[in-house]
Amino acid sequence: MLHRFRSGRKLLAFSSAALVAIGLMAVFSAGSSAHQRHANRGHHNAGHHSGSGGQGGITSVPWGSVNGHAVNLYTLSNGHGMKVAITNYGGVVQSIWVPDRWGGTKNVALGFSTLQDYVSDFTQGATNTPWPLPGGSGDTFFGAIIGRYANRIANHSFTMTCGAPCTNNGKTYTLDANNGVNTLHGGFLGWNTVVWTATTQSGPNGPSLVLTNTFPAGEGCLTLSATCNGFPAAVKATVTYTLTRNNALQIGYSAVNQSTTDATVINLTNHTYFNLGGEGSGSVEDQELKINADQYQPVDTNLIPTNFASVAGTAYDFRHLHTIGLNIRRADLPDGGTQAFPQLVIAHGYDNNWVLNGSGYRLASTALDPKTGIELSTFTDQPGVQFYSGNFLVGDLVGPSGHTYRQTDGFTLETQHYPDAPHHIGDSAWPSVVLNPNATFTSTTAYQFSTSGHGHYAHNHR
Question: What domain range includes position 242?
């Protein structure tokens, strides 16, 4: 997803109030160079361990600290050639090691080698400190848990519409404008910027990392004020990462509205960038993608959806497997948008919500790298998926491979409710994002990996 706007390739100027976040900036306790080498390889043999040898399990190593809170890097392995490294800072999926067709493994997730890189990247808007240099890629949200509201809310505000027992019906909530005039991914200090409480489990489906945190009413504002009152209601969140025996990274989300009076809005996702050719291997344009969607949402120049359009005859038709790059430059094709500019020009590539066919837990998309044979099947119970083609990676960020990331060097498949749905509460075309008092939101997404011709998606992946 596009993470910031440009003006003459400069970062947006933030209000002076943003400087308050400097006090929230991380104080690092740097891990040893050995720990960083572990992070680069995605193998962690020291530190806490749960699980059993060849059957997989979880290991962990200290990875530093943020604001005095200890951060660990956990590695889940399943005994079937797959390992996933996840940190409790922001719930970041730091690396995903999967088998390729030659019997080796590749890390297929973009990210950083150190905790400090993640914190610097994720908090640059809050501190008004472009990282690593001005005019760069901006906040990438690499691999992170995104909340309280994934994607954009137009004009950094919304008016709640709800019924009994909700008592805040008709109240307007203002939020950080951290993406032009919009609120993106929960504001300057979203769920990707906190240290979550972590516990580990071993179950019949595989090892799990369980992350919990309680987010207060008023989050979504860098500084609470008369002009920024934040999201209503405290929310207790639990995100469970499970590495299954059939090579799926399953993500279970739970969000409990702890208010007895106020409704809130909720939209959760994970922001991993995939490259099935391997992290740092270059463009994904020759990788293939299929999305189970007959419609997508065109956007205006602020990246806010304007309507629903058929994908037929457009560059957004991924109903059949084809390369990501096939039509990514085809601004001459109709796109169903209502704007003066073609959709591919507005977003600098793909950065839209696809309206998934069907309902319930189902196959959302399939991706394949013909060279490595690595295949990714995405399953979800959510109504949409944001496909983003890494349009604003500009070569200033360096991954664990030592290679820089440039445009189209990764793609996201962010399962979600629709962008800007808080402005469409009550519209039957927009699934509701309202979380009533005392109510619980749950959702499951899984990213399953196989090699081409093997382990296709005819199984039950829940």
Answer: 1-462
- 84 pLDDT tier (thresholds 50, 70, 90): very high
Among residues 247, 246, 280, 363, the alpha carbon closest in space to that of 108 is found at 280
Residues 46-51 have a mean pLDDT of 46
Phi-psi region of 121 (alpha: psi -120 to 50; beta: other; left: phi over 0): alpha
Instruction: Supply 396's token pair.
Output: 């200033």
Tell me the catalytic residues.
Answer: 271, 414
CATH number for the domain spanning 245: value is 2.70.98.10
Q: pLDDT (tens digit, 9 = 90+) per residue, 365-424? A: 999 999 999 999 999 999 999 999 999 999 999 999 999 999 999 999 999 999 999 999
Q: How far apart are CA 162 and CA 233, in angstroms?
A: 13
Give the global pTM: 0.89
Q: Please give the tally of structural domains in the chain.
A: 1
